[in-house]
Amino acid sequence: MPRNGSDIRRRTMQRKRIMHFGTWNVQGISRKMDEVLYEINKLEIDLAVLTEIKKKSQGSENLGMYDYFYSGVPKEKRAGQGVAILIHRKHRKYITTWEGISERIIKINMNIRGYRLTIIGVYAVNDDSPTASKDTFFQQLNDEIIKTGKTREIFLLGDLNSRTGKSDNDVTIGKYGEETLNNNGERLIDMCKQNNLRILNGFYQHRNIHKYTWTQDTKKIRSIIDYVITKQKTKIQIQDVRVYRGAICGSDHHLLKAKIFLPYKREKIEYKEIENVTKEIEERRYNLTALEDPACKCYTEKD
Fold this sequence. Notes:
It is built from five helices and 15 strands. The chain is α+β, with helices and mostly antiparallel strands. GO terms for molecular function: double-stranded DNA 3'-5' DNA exonuclease activity.
């Protein structure tokens, strides 16, 4: 049955409100950028957090179809860690600010389709790191989440080096994760519960090849350590989160992609501005009785 014009317009508008976010531990970016950009573009990803980029300093670059924001170690240190965000250039106008917090945390603020988004890219310390290092990292990450406030939407993406397990009746982790829970995972869950966040991977049922984000086939080991996290209560609809194993850049991590829908949001009327205009009109008092004065009357030639 042929579609009418209104159906086509409606579907077109809905497609414009769909975005694809991703995260990928690329294990060094210096010789892989072309491959990474090719895979990101092929999967039509609008925004991607790249971790373990092993790049020094902080800055931004234009890379053709994408803008590249990165935060690495200081110049005097050996290249390591590092986190970055790629954003398709069609969304450039929606970026308001960005900040490299450290070589493990980067943040970008966007205002898009009536939503105020804060995207936090994260590359966490390893689970076997010293307790003090873990305390410092998770405290810094928690501070950045708190700074966003309650009025902004939060998307936290990256390699958290955390295994969060699964649960049938848990609003934080979901029932489709893996069995294993490690110390980083416990810390991540506690932080998410304190901030009313949801670790989305465990809420979408997929085959194992579309679930595990890190694998070593030779040793037959695998885990879920890369995540997409957002608020528990949000008007934004997360339609899917899954691994795409076809994307290759010489890393043993797999690209994780989330499909996001931004529902139509009615913009709030600035009542304060309307009140000011109304007050201004009311304050303009016109002396109507003065029009009865003969000196103010206008006469036509006939009169």
